[in-house]
Amino acid sequence: MLDHPEEYYSHYYHYYSRRLAPKVDVRVVILVSVCAISMFQYFSWWNSYNKAISYLATVPKYRIQATEIAKEQGLLKKA
């Protein structure tokens, strides 16, 4: 090692790269990442959907249209 001091850190790298390498399958990491991203997308979609429905329920124009459509489809009793 003293003959080639520039290779000092490469010896450490080669020793610890195998000893400290993660023992997790790459497929598991990819699967968990895809599931986490999908859950985030679903909950953000659900939140924006609920916000849109809440907003549309407060505006009289859209609320009246929605009640008329619901009456036509038989979801509400015709009054």
Automatic annotation (TrEMBL):
The question of whether rRNA-binding is a record keyword is answered with no
Which Gene Ontology terms describe the biological processes this protein takes part in? protein folding
Example of a GO cellular component annotation carried by this entry: membrane
Q: Where in the cell is it found?
A: Membrane
Superkingdom, natural source: Eukaryota
Protein's UniProt keywords contain Ion transport: no
| Membrane-crossing residue ranges in chain numbering | 28-46
Name used for this protein in its record: DnaJ heat shock protein family (Hsp40) member C25
Highest classification ranks of the organism: Eukaryota, Metazoa, Chordata, Craniata, Vertebrata
